[in-house]
Specification:
By secondary structure, this protein is an alpha+beta fold. It contains three helices and six strands.
Length: 112
């Protein structure tokens, strides 16, 4: 049994069967036990700009615009995983809101 610590202080109780392999090297008995691990990688939102990623796991955003950048890196919604949704993750720069309001006012006054 292995206990693996992951983010958000959660623990996975994984039952892994470890099977040693016995063999001989230069006439000496030896054994090897392999752990079934899967390769993975993680990058920051900033480093992902311009990339298309096979899977997105979105959590812990701390700057305005990061959610948009992260979600736009996925090729489809099936590739997006949001383990915990917190509205604080969707930070928006106040100057962007003000600019949208300014543009909406211009559009309303100059309707065709």
């Amino acid at each position: 049994m292995a206990f693996i610590s992951i983010s958000h202080k959660a623990i996975i109780d994984a039952h892994i069967t470890l099977k040693p392999t016995y063999f001989t090297v230069n006439g000496n008995q030896a054994s090897r036990t392999q752990f079934p691990l899967q390769n993975c990688f993680a990058i920051t939102v900033h480093k992902s700009q311009g990339l298309t990623l096979p899977k997105i796991s979105a959590f812990q955003f701390f700057a305005p615009g990061q959610v948009y950048v992260a979600l736009s890196r996925a090729s489809s919604w099936d590739a997006v995983e949001i383990p915990m949704l917190n509205k604080k993750a969707f930070l928006v720069d106040k100057s962007v809101i003000e600019e949208y309001e300014r543009l909406e006012n211009i559009a309303e006054t100059h309707q065709l």
